[in-house]
Amino acid sequence: MEKLFIPEQDRQYIDDLRSLIRTGVTAAPNLENLSLINLAAVVRESGDNASQVQRASAFVTVMRRIIRERLEGREAQTAALLFALDEHAGTPIQDRYRAVAKLYNPYWTWENYRKEPLTRHLLAVYLALRREAELYNAVATTSKNKVLIVKNISREGPGLLEQLLREVALNYDAVDLHKGEPLPDPTTYGALIVLGGPDSANDTTGKMAAELALVKKAFAANVPYLGVCLGLQVATKALGGKVIKSPVKEVGLHNARGEPYSVSLTNLALTALGKKDPLFVGLRNHFRVFQLHGETVELTGDMQLLATGSDCRNQIVKFGPAAYGIQSHFELTKDMLQVWLKADPDLTPLSSQKVMEDFEAIEEVYSITGLSLLRNFLQVAGLLS
After folding, report:
1. pLDDT computed for residue 107 by the predictor
2. What is the tens place of the pLDDT at every residue in 30-40?
3. Among 288, 324, 290, CA closest to 306
4. Which of 42, 78, 331, 347 is deepest in the core (most CB within 10 A)?
5. What's the pTM?
6. Is 288 helix (H, G, I), strand (E, B) or coil?
7. What is the rounded CA–CA span in Å between residue 100 and residue 122?
8. CA dist 322 to 87, 170, 201, 222, 224, Å?
9. Is 33 within 8 Å of 52 (Cβ atoms)?
10. Cross-strand pairs, 151
11. How many CA atoms lie within 13 A of 311 on its CB side?
12. What confidence tier does 65 reach under pLDDT thresholds 50, 70, 90?
């Protein structure tokens, strides 16, 4: 069998990958000491100032991503087995060896497979790791091509937003205010996305003061903006509107009458132009939403109401040419919902099983709607063509 040529500068990375096979990536005792954690894709994932342990964790994240999104077919199956990821974690090495061999020939043993083909697959993984950084760098060469995501509480993460940003290879920075992480200058980013949380935009805490100042600065510089739940309320407050107690506290997928929460683009004459807004390209006039809020907003004359709800009226608001706020949690994923049902005091009284069953019944359409809204926003912001 013809030997593969591997440039001298790449051999250490191949050898490091080979060394991870015996234990698997997640159980490797010396991962933080390997050259792999210094690959550009890993540094991007962890941040420039991350420790070796943090970079080792980021390497696992990047490995999962390239296996799931970049490799295909048997290459992906082989990599997942060799490095004992996800469902293969904890599987003895002998069993993984046999499973890999039989991917290529039902009569093969590990001895038939393990020499040159192994090196070839290790090279494929390494090249995918290298290409991951190139893919991001090709799109995001400056912070103006990056998105700044602000989390108000750790459990309310970007969800579908993060999934789409990765798929379209857009760089982003996420700041968790609940952990006291400092806010960067929003004017150096291509867009600002502020997520939900249990705070009120009317709070007088240092955290909320800093968040309001951030949003005001972003609007003053015309940075494209998307606010989710609390993010809508913060933007309204920052621009002179009011945040008040909602006439109905909206929690979950259904209201107190058992009716599904939804928003409408055309129910009122005031919002008849909503369906023509570029944020809603490809979407229906009505779509299901998940709600988790006890406050709502009063708009100024400069704000345009795009979509309404039956109980809480102001659901989607346009603040400017590329600035929006959405009251519902369109970014929600099933994994996020499972966490919220256990941790959020407004959700814990609900039947977790019933809520999960209801969400799973609409999950596919819900995800399509959320991803469409975000993609449309990124196009309005000029970050996607």
Report:
1. 82
2. 999 999 999 99
3. 324
4. 331
5. 0.63
6. strand
7. 13
8. 42, 18, 22, 8, 5
9. yes
10. 176
11. 24
12. confident
| Angstrom distance (rounded) from CA 18 to CA 34 | 11
> Cβ(314)–Cβ(297) under 8 Å?
yes
Reduced 3-state DSSP string for 80-124: HHHCCCHHHCCCCHHHHHHHHHHHHCCCCCHHHHCCHHHHHHHHH
Rounded to a whole number of angstroms, the distance between the first and last alpha carbons of the chain is 46
Inform me whether the pLDDT recorded for 177 exceeds 90.
Answer: yes
How far apart, in whole angstroms, are the C-alpha atoms of residue 279 and residue 277?
Answer: 5
Query: How far, in Å, are 158, 195, 262, 339, 340 from residue 155 at the CA level?
Result: 9, 11, 24, 7, 7
Both tokens of 22, joined, read: 């015996």
**What are the helix (H) ranges across the chain?**
8-19, 40-46, 52-65, 73-82, 93-104, 110-113, 116-139, 160-167, 206-220, 230-238, 334-343, 352-380
In CATH, the number for domain 145-380 is 3.40.50.880
Nearest Cα neighbor of 17 from 53, 54, 73, 67 is: 67
pLDDT (tens digit per residue) in 327-383 = 999 999 999 999 999 999 988 899 999 999 999 998 898 999 999 999 999 999 999
- Does 138 have pLDDT greater than 70? no
Q: Give the contacts of 167 (CB within 8 A, at least 6 positions apart).
A: 69
The contacts of residue 169 (CB under 8 Å, 6+ apart) are 135, 136, 138, 139, 140
Quick one: tokens of 134? Answer: 């190139």
Q: Angle at CA 237, nearest 5°, toward 233 and 243?
A: 60
Rounded Cα distance between 272 and 264, Å, is 10
